[in-house]
Amino acid sequence: MNLTLLSNWSVFHNKQKLHFLGKLTTIILLMISLSVTAFAQTVVKGIIYDNDKLPLVGATIQVAGTNVKAQTDAEGKYQIAVPSATSKLIVSFVGFESQTVSVNNQTLVNVTLASLNNLDAVVVVGYASVKKSDLTGAAATVSAKDFNKGPLNAPDQLIQGKVAGVQMINNSGQPGGASTVRIRGNSAITGSGQPLYVVDGVALDGRSARPSASAGIGTAPAGNPLNFINPADIESMEILKDASATAIYGSRAAYGVVLITTKRGKSGDTKIDINASAGVGNIARKVDVLTGDEYRAALKKYGLTSGDFGTSVNALDEVLRTAYNQNYSVGISGGTNGNTFRASLGYQNQQGIIKGSDFKKYSAGFNGNFKFLESKKLGLDVNMISNQYLENIAPITTDAGFTGSLISQALSWNPTQSFYNPDGSLFIDYGSTTINPLAALAANSDKAKVSTILGSVSPYYKITPWLEYRMLASVNYSTGIRRASTRSTLNLQGIQPSGDFLGGYASYSNTELVTQQFTNTLNFNKEIVSKLNLNAVIGYEYSNFINKSAVNTATGFGNLPLDYTDAFEATLKANRTFVTSYDPTTELQSYFARAIFNYDNKYILTATVRADGSTKFGTNNKYGYFPSFAAAWNIKQESFLANVAWLDVLKIRASYGITGNQDFPSGSSQQRFVYRTPSKAGDPIPQVGINNQNDNLKWQEDKQTNAGIDFGLFGNKLTGSIDYFNKTTKDLLYPQTAFAPAEQGNVITWKNLSGEIINKGTEMSLNANIIEKDNLSWSLGGNLTYIKNRVENLSDLIKTGALSGQGLSDVTTEVIQNGLPLFAMVTRQYNGLDANGFSLYTDDGFTKYYVGNPNPKFIMGLSTNLRYKKLSFSANFNGSFGQSIYNNTANSVLAISNLGSRNVSSGILALPVQESLANPIAASSRYIEKGDYVKLANATLNYNIGNIGKAIKSLNVYINGQNLFVITNYTGFDPEVNVNKSVNGVPSAGIDYTAYPTARTFNFGVNFSL
């Protein structure tokens, strides 16, 4: 019956119901199918890496054709649902090539993004940014992942050995000490010769507020003016080398430009980055002097009956120590809707390997990038760096006489003589000029405090998508205080008591530096006709520079039981001096423009011009004009190379331009005087001339030609560049003193010399990604530079390179002379010892010869990175070849004439002829040594633990070593040395004199994110 009923009810009696039921069934089946498909979505996971197989944090993964997106976490990991096993993913990250990959039924998809090969990467080139493919000049970028690692004091140490054509020397091992940076050779006969540093658009003036006054024992080595910047806050550094790249900075770009970009916040959740390390350091290399037993043997060999005090000591070890360091940095960053921020704090505490010396630094920074209005066309960038560092400075000087400073006192101390009296007190021989180094340490106090704040605000308005106006206003304020004293207990002339003089010396000094900068720019970037793009900037800039200082000195404190610098009033008025100074304010007004034409990404032309007006120069030459022109051809973009699969990049470049130099004292073109104390009240205040007027003083010019080629091969696994450069420096700025004492009051007149300094050479860099696998990668990078330096058409003979120590008063060993390299070493030519142990010289020493060149012929750098799964290793080498070093220490501190009273170099006793004790100390080529070296400056072993729980992200632990070894034949502490031995403001090069020794350090650290 039921069947009958069903049959009766069925569709045969109602066709409309039949159609309705069919449609309903179809819809239900379709919905079920869609539902099943939705529930069957594939979940894809993976890690996004960079070229070095390091995880990229914040990379974006998007399902092609949809709005479905995901971002990588702190370990570079992502997870995303895809609608189909055949879907495609688009992976992107700022500064890297976007990549589209097919899922292909996989649930694990790891992707390695290639950096825009640095071709489409955005590069900061001064007042604007351009794609690297549009660059026509010689420039190099070093990013944070490629920096030298470890607890470094200043930014210039981050790039040592990293860039072709750039030589970076740590002048000594002093914590926070000065460095020498040379870009494409040396051409400075006055001033520092250092590049211009620009931090987030603010140009630094290269000055340090640390006062130079020391504790009355000589001139202390300088500090590094970049110490106020925390290296942990730096994102990248751009090094501009040729005139096309640097001409936009005009009169301050003669020695190259280094652009420092600090880290910025990124949109997303607030993130905390933490880095902490601690380490230990000891002296890296020692100078060979005699031990106690060797000294006794030497006395016996020479038949001396005095000089053996019966014990054995090592004076250098007594003033050295195992030094500890700590370094901490915290960065907090985040933002939403394009408004981002980053704040940072840093603390560094680095003991020096010399007892009592150390360097402490406290730093804080903030930057914000904010956008306003619904259109987001109005923006504001804010930057602030604040820093204070404290130093305890060792009693080491660059110009100590025969009594020496701490290092020379330790090296020359008789190794058979105790430092202490029988009662345990320090042995001090007031009848001798030999100084107990432990007594020198105990008597010395030299403390410096430098505080700096660098702040800038930069509002901008995007008038159209291709036109932007930007203004930048900045202030760089720095002040330094230095308290230095030497107590009366030391048996040093001018310090020890004598008659009514109670002894002791103190100085209190302070310096205040202010730099203000106001910049207005208009940036244009648009395709103006088909295939032709114009990237241009025009601007106006005004800067002023202020320098104030004061120095107080006093003597005659005696046994006052206080720090001498707290009790100046306890000395006689006649024993006090008080000097203040205020340099004439320097003002710099500039107009500049640059245009980059790019046709079809093949042919690129760049033209730049800057006009600088400075108060430093004479009234007839206030303005200098600095143009440059450059062209590039991206040959790879041509159709005839389009199908050459193994060739990825091929570009040739050529440029010519002029830059300038105003690195000399303020007011140099004006008539200047200093005041002196009148004899009595009511008398006219005496004035003493220090500078003559010169209305024709003009800009020093550097003309530079550059030709280069960039290439990338085999999927950019092998990339590099080769450049030839020729730089000529003319109109040399020089402070000339009248030959006749009565002429012009015998004060200096700044003039432009007629000579030229030529630096030319070739530089090459090469980088290879040798192995690129998920679990294993290896990259190798190197650079090599050949430089030839020569002085031409100079009629003057300029002496510099002052030697110091016993028997070397008023002796110089370097010259700036026509036909020779800059700072050529000219002295007696040593030919060994005669049969009686006396020095033999060509022409009996009456004629001086060119016998040494402190400028290297070759400089090199080598870096390697090796990664196996989560373990990675990096090492950085640097080297220099072909340069000479004058060993002033061996010349005057460790001579054979010391034997019987002080120590000598152990090498003297190994000579084939026994040197006579009466052989006089004299400057000669005997003390000029080859300075060739290769140094493993930095190595790091890192293990990436990854995430721990939900809080700690991307935890890394590492061990780092610095100055691990050096290969050299140089007999001093370190061939990487450059003690300031200038004469009348003319710098020197390649002289070593009792410098602070270099430390070898090992550090253990961790870094992670929260």
Main attributes?
52 strands, 1010 residues, mainly beta, globular, 22-stranded antiparallel β-barrel, 8 helices, five-stranded mixed sheet
C-alpha-based Rg, rounded: 34 Å
As a percent range, the share of helical residues equals under 10%
What is the SS-derived class?
Answer: mainly beta
Number of helices: 8
Write down the overall geometry: globular
Structural features, described:
- It is a single chain.
- The chain is mainly beta.
- 7% of the residues lie in helices and 47% in strands.
- It contains eight helices and 52 strands.
- The strands form eleven sheets. The protein has a 22-stranded antiparallel β-barrel. A five-stranded mixed sheet has the order 10-15-16-13-14. The chain has a four-stranded antiparallel sheet with strand order 3-2-5-6, with no helix packed on it.
- Strand 42 and strand 43 form a beta hairpin.
- The longest helix is centred in the N-terminal third of the chain and has 25 residues.
Summarize the model shown.
This protein is mostly beta strands and 1010 residues long. 7% of the residues lie in helices and 47% in strands.
Question: Helix and strand layout, with pairings?
Answer:
Layout: H1 2-9, H2 15-39, E1 42-49, E2 60-63, E3 69-71, E4 77-82, E5 88-92, E6 99-102, E7 111-112, E8 122-124, E9 129-131, E10 139-143, E11 166-170, E12 179-183, E13 196-199, E14 202-203, E15 234-240, H3 243-246, E16 257-262, E17 268-283, H4 292-301, H5 315-319, E18 323-336, E19 339-351, E20 358-372, E21 378-392, H6 406-412, H7 437-443, E22 444-464, E23 467-486, E24 505-529, E25 532-555, E26 576-582, E27 586-599, E28 603-614, E29 623-634, E30 647-661, E31 672-675, E32 687-691, E33 700-713, E34 718-730, E35 732-737, E36 748-753, E37 756-772, E38 776-792, E39 798-802, E40 812-816, E41 824-827, E42 830-833, E43 839-841, E44 849-852, E45 858-868, E46 871-881, E47 884-887, H8 888-892, E48 928-930, E49 933-948, E50 952-968, E51 991-992, E52 999-1009
Parallel strand pairs: 1-7, 13-16, 47-51
Antiparallel strand pairs: 1-4, 2-3, 2-5, 5-6, 8-9, 10-15, 11-12, 13-14, 15-16, 17-18, 17-52, 18-19, 19-20, 20-21, 21-22, 22-23, 23-24, 24-25, 25-26, 25-27, 27-28, 28-29, 29-30, 30-33, 31-32, 33-34, 34-37, 35-36, 37-38, 38-45, 39-40, 40-41, 41-44, 42-43, 45-46, 46-49, 47-48, 49-50, 50-52
